[in-house]
Amino acid sequence: MELRLYDTLTKEKRIFAPLDAENVRMYVCGPTVYDFAHIGNARPVIVFDVLFRLLRHLYGEAHVKYVRNITDVDDKINDRAARDFPGLPLNEAIRKVTEQTGRQFHADVDALGALRPSVEPRATEHIAEMREIIERLIKGGFAYAAEDHVLFSPQAMNAANSSLPRYGALSKRSLDEMIAGARVDVAPYKRDATDFVLWKPSKPGEPSWPSPAGIKAEGRPGWHIECSAMAWKHLGEHFDIHGGGIDLVFPHHENEVAQTCCAFHQQRMANYWMHNGFLQVESEKMSKSLGNFITIDELLADWPGEVLRLNMLKTHYRSPIDWTMKSLEESAKTLDDWYRVAADVAPGEPAASVVEPLLDDLNTPLAIAALHSLRGGDVGALAGSLRLLGFLSESAAQWEGRKQQASGVDAKEVERLLAERTAARSRKDFKESDRIRDLLAAMGVAIKDSKDGTTWEFSR
Ligand code: AMP
Ligand code: ZN
Prior knowledge:
By secondary structure, the protein is of the alpha/beta class. Helices cover 45% and strands 15% of the residues. It folds into three domains: 4-279, 3-Layer(aba) Sandwich (Rossmann fold), CATH 3.40.50; 302-398, Four Helix Bundle (Hemerythrin (Met), subunit A) (Up-down Bundle), CATH 1.20.120; 408-458, no CATH class. The chain has helices at residues 42-59, 75-84, 90-111, 127-139, 154-159, 175-180, 223-235, 249-264, 296-300, 305-313, 325-342, 352-359, 364-374, 379-388, 396-426, 430-442; strands spanning 4-7, 12-15, 24-28, 64-68, 143-146, 149-152, 196-201, 219-221, 239-245, 270-276, 279-281, 284-285, 321-323, 445-450, 453-458.
């Protein structure tokens, strides 16, 4: 059986043929470390972890290189640092924010059963590569310096009569339409409205590095160039798979392709572009203003990471996912059962009935259905298959113990949140009280208001 993957560029499932079967290479855009990761951010982590595990299964552990970066230079990080550590020099505050957030991210994704990538490069450690790419782009006539910025010109790229890809090919946008639809308040240093930033000046006190292109003032990179540089450094000019969430297709990935292909005269940056669909909560878009914004850390207070993992994989990675309480409860029951039946069994080879759907563009819902069928039969194959998917990291006894511990912590936290909610209601802040109710629901707590007060119970 061959692995087939859906490629966003060609819009079809194609047989996966690595450039080098001894060294299969995948890059996935990682987090910008300024805040807790939310459950939507967990989706690419889990999806591409399954792919990483599958590739290792097919090509051997030593023959797969998975790179997931950490974006540690960004305006959002600077803003957060200034807000959270007003007394510290900005650069020190930034280091605190990125270190804390990076540690939290690792704790979260470890708990989700995701293997650490082979390399986790940090943007700030690849400034030299960024400058090198920028210099190449200027030399090739694809980029120019203006007012201490360096800009990439998609029009120069598409005017080049060469074997480069067209700008817009990945996101299926036409450059002419982008030009026509461009906003009027374009930054004055841009020659064309569609030009994007490769390098920009830093404000006093902000992180800064010597600039490329003979610019005297120090500056810092734009976001897109970071990934081109880190992918180049660790995977080369052309590699197998590039992944991320569907929101990254434009402009981030379109711009990565433009930078890399123009700098290295490549027809392609990655041979397969894979994008996970979006996650919404109880049928609503997750957002801070709607109050249904759930962090991985909050969920982990109430659910074992493997429950979150299973809940994610019950939906195919390209479909939108509706994250619901009901589905989480079902996932928890399923895992309880699998732990009882298979955790302490010697794992056999993963079953063909599980591996085959995975080979078909990571059809995890079908693979999970096959696991249910194995449940009453070959439990050795069930155990091996579950491990391939990143489950059963604990013994059955550990699993039970942790669950009991978790419900001990809950009760206190529930009481605290209920008190907060009562306070919010009494000051008529219904947005806040609804937010807390939803948060409790996500923790598995059902509440009931009556004239005698509020009662609650675990709904699982
Ligand atoms: P960000 O830190 O916003 O750049 O996001 C990190 C990763 O999470 C990217 O691959 C995003 O595409 C992905 N992502 C962000 N929000 C969601 C969501 N609600 N559902 C699925 N993936 C998401
Ligand atoms: Zn990226």
